[in-house]
Design goal:
about 150 residues; mainly alpha; Arc Repressor Mutant, subunit A; 9 helices
């Protein structure tokens, strides 16, 4: 069984990066006991086949263009990534205001620059908040134009 468990873990890791918690959840039903699973995960981590840092970097690269820091932080924490790793990855990523501007312009196009109406600005703010952008970033974005920055 340990060889089958290792093979399954390697197949999963060959497809994409996984966090330690995510891989543990997927393999839990195949392991004979918790110690066997923990030993396998420790071995994979030691051999650098499993890395929460690499997983967090990959997740950020694929999702940062569409979501704000709050949403990305929440997603990483729910996958079992440590707070210090989350903080480092988010800090090293692209500026949230820049990402918010791209999302905003892609979604609203020409409306984005002509939003003088309060209801329209509120709608745009709700959209950005739903994507996980901070209130401060939304306020800065909606009160300025790209030329102001």
């Amino acid at each position: 069984m340990p060889d089958a468990l290792r093979e399954c873990a390697l197949r999963l890791l060959a497809r994409r990066e996984h966090s330690r918690q995510e891989l543990s959840d997927k393999l839990a039903s195949l392991a004979e006991d918790a110690e066997q699973l923990a030993a396998l995960l420790d071995d994979l981590t030691e051999k650098d086949l499993l890395s929460d840092q690499r997983y967090a970097d990959m997740r950020l690269k694929t999702r940062a263009a569409r979501f704000g820091d709050a949403r990305l932080t929440h997603e990483l924490r729910t996958k079992g990534i440590a707070d210090e790793v989350v903080g480092t990855v988010i800090k090293d990523g692209t500026d949230e205001l820049t990402r918010a501007r791209r999302v905003w312009q892609r979604r609203f196009g020409e409306q984005a620059t002509a939003a003088d109406d309060f209801a329209e600005r509120a709608r745009q703010a709700r959209f950005l908040a739903g994507r996980g952008f901070s209130g401060e970033t939304i306020r800065r974005l909606l009160r300025t134009t790209p030329e102001d920055d």
